[in-house]
């Protein structure tokens, strides 16, 4: 005798047909939430803004950007890579102006995506991007080390690095600083060693475990350490006053907006490319992803929160936890919202040195030491670009450092694409045959003229330029002048031909 399925079974079957991956996405969302929580708070504190604003950005990145089309599995939120830039902007323009910067940057990102410019970010030299991240990582490590020992960090990147030894020596003489250093160092140790813990323990994300253990230590008697200041979610959200938009005409603010826009866009789209290599699902639509990032940043700016980018740490955790659709990243935003609304006082238990330790660890992962060694063996020019970009960011600023890296990359590419070769065939009798091939540009003009002027002056010369892919105006003029000078010595006129056998002047090459 057959029995019909119960209503509950029918409902379950219908739900599974409509949301076939709900179980995997739900589990992944919890993991991403636990990874994102300490990072959102840590980035906010390191940026010099209320901790709740980091959660606001994580919520918007999960719920709003997560719902939009673009990349289905990468997760957005406040990023360690923008911490240095945000901190400098807050120090220079004030917290109310940060909302204006983020809002306008989001609008620009949306426009770039609508104009289908997202794909062009893939044309940025990888060495420049890695140099940018390395520079950010070095400044982040140096700056957050001061927070680990409870000291005030200098303003400049160079000052942060050069002042570290004295700061650490001073901390060794201060009991409170030593306690703070112990908590920060312990946090870093847990993060580094967590991958070797037993599998049941590793079900808890490393950042959450490290911060949670630090919070327990901070509760012990006699442990005096700074903790996160809590304002409340609604009190922390402060939309930018209309008067702040009047500063958009200042060059400094516009430069900061451009820096935010380009760096956040590049980081998000490069993260998308990396995430695509981790799974077999739908590929990223770069222009749509840029629109999604722009919409999220526009909302974050309107709320006075931190800027967002796609974050590779959270995105990798999402993929590795078995996420199949965008539902996982949306749900992670919902969990952040529930935490911020229901358990805000928990933030007050988190020690500042522990958050600083999390960011020191994150900054260290941005410095590609192993990749730099391999790059030096393969292509020293690219390795130099990486090092110069990182150094310029530390020594000058983020925006100028990236511009220097891009300029070096363009110069290197122009130099490499202007390779030219002169092959001379001299049979001892008759004309000297010379074959010029490659790309003859003004960059290689001195080399070309040196080689041509070294040809015998008392012999006829036949110059074949059919192998040239490009001949710019400067080189063409120089070849004509050289031919006139060489012909003036009493030898037969130099014959310069193209592939069709035409004369240089007649062909107009």
From TrEMBL:
<feature type="transmembrane region" description="Helical">
    <location>
        <begin position="334"/>
        <end position="363"/>
    </location>
</feature>
<keyword id="KW-1133">Transmembrane helix</keyword>
<feature type="transmembrane region" description="Helical">
    <location>
        <begin position="53"/>
        <end position="73"/>
    </location>
</feature>
<feature type="transmembrane region" description="Helical">
    <location>
        <begin position="93"/>
        <end position="111"/>
    </location>
</feature>
<dbReference type="InterPro" id="IPR011547">
    <property type="entry name" value="SLC26A/SulP_dom"/>
</dbReference>
<dbReference type="Pfam" id="PF00916">
    <property type="entry name" value="Sulfate_transp"/>
</dbReference>
<feature type="domain" description="SLC26A/SulP transporter">
    <location>
        <begin position="22"/>
        <end position="389"/>
    </location>
</feature>
<dbReference type="GO" id="GO:0055085">
    <property type="term" value="P:transmembrane transport"/>
</dbReference>
<feature type="transmembrane region" description="Helical">
    <location>
        <begin position="208"/>
        <end position="228"/>
    </location>
</feature>
<dbReference type="GO" id="GO:0016020">
    <property type="term" value="C:membrane"/>
</dbReference>
<feature type="region of interest" description="Disordered">
    <location>
        <begin position="485"/>
        <end position="509"/>
    </location>
</feature>
<keyword id="KW-0472">Membrane</keyword>
<dbReference type="InterPro" id="IPR001902">
    <property type="entry name" value="SLC26A/SulP_fam"/>
</dbReference>
<feature type="transmembrane region" description="Helical">
    <location>
        <begin position="26"/>
        <end position="46"/>
    </location>
</feature>
<feature type="transmembrane region" description="Helical">
    <location>
        <begin position="123"/>
        <end position="142"/>
    </location>
</feature>
<feature type="transmembrane region" description="Helical">
    <location>
        <begin position="177"/>
        <end position="196"/>
    </location>
</feature>
<feature type="compositionally biased region" description="Low complexity">
    <location>
        <begin position="488"/>
        <end position="501"/>
    </location>
</feature>
<keyword id="KW-0812">Transmembrane</keyword>
<feature type="transmembrane region" description="Helical">
    <location>
        <begin position="248"/>
        <end position="270"/>
    </location>
</feature>
<protein>
    <submittedName>
        <fullName>SulP family inorganic anion transporter</fullName>
    </submittedName>
</protein>
<feature type="transmembrane region" description="Helical">
    <location>
        <begin position="383"/>
        <end position="411"/>
    </location>
</feature>
């Amino acid at each position: 005798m057959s029995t019909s399925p119960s209503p509950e079974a029918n409902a379950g079957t219908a739900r599974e047909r409509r949301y076939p991956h709900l179980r995997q996405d739900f589990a992944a969302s919890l993991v991403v939430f636990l990874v994102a929580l300490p990072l959102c708070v840590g980035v906010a504190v390191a940026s010099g803004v209320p901790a709740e604003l980091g959660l606001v950005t994580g919520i918007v990145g999960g719920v709003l950007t997560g719902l939009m089309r673009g990349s289905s599995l990468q997760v957005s939120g406040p990023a360690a890579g923008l911490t240095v830039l945000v901190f400098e902007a807050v120090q220079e323009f004030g917290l109310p102006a940060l909302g204006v910067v983020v809002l306008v940057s989001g609008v620009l990102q949306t426009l770039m995506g609508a104009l289908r410019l997202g794909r062009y970010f893939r044309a940025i030299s990888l060495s420049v991007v890695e140099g940018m991240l390395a520079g950010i990582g070095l400044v982040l490590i140096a700056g957050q080390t001061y927070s680990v020992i409870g000291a005030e960090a200098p303003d400049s990147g160079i000052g942060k690095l050069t002042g570290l030894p004295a700061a650490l020596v001073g901390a060794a003489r201060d009991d409170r600083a030593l306690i703070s250093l112990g908590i920060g160092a312990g946090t870093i140790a847990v993060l580094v060693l967590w991958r070797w813990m037993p599998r049941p323990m590793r079900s808890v994300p490393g950042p959450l475990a490290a911060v949670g253990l630090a919070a327990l230590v901070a509760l012990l008697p006699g442990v005096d350490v700074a903790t996160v200041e809590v304002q409340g979610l609604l009190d922390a959200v402060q939309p930018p006053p209309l008067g702040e938009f009047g500063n958009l005409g200042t060059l400094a603010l516009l430069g900061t907006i451009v820096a935010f826009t380009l760096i956040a866009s590049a980081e998000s789209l490069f993260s998308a490319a990396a995430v695509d290599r981790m799974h077999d699902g739908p590929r990223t639509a770069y222009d749509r992803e840029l629109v999604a990032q722009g919409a999220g940043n526009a909302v974050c700016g309107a709320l006075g929160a931190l800027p967002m980018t796609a974050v590779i740490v959270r995105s990798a955790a999402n993929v590795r936890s078995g996420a199949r659709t965008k539902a996982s990243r949306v749900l992670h935003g919902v969990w952040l919202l529930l935490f911020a609304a229901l358990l805000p006082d928990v933030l007050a238990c988190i020690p500042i040195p522990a958050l600083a330790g999390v960011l020191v660890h994150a900054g260290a992962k941005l410095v590609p030491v192993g990749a730099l060694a391999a790059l030096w063996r393969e292509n020293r020019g690219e390795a130099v670009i990486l090092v110069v970009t990182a150094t310029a960011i530390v020594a000058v600023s983020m925006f100028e450092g990236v511009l220097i890296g891009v300029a070096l990359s363009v110069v290197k590419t122009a130099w490499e694409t202007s390779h030219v070769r002169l092959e001379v065939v001299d049979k001892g009798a008759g004309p000297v045959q010379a074959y010029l091939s490659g790309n003859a540009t003004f960059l290689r003009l001195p080399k070309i003229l040196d080689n041509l002027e070294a040809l015998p002056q008392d012999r006829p010369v036949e110059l074949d330029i059919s192998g040239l892919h490009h001949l710019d105006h400067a080189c063409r003029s120089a070849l004509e002048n050289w031919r006139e000078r060489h012909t003036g010595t009493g030898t037969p006129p130099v014959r310069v031909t193209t592939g069709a056998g035409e004369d240089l002047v007649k062909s107009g090459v």
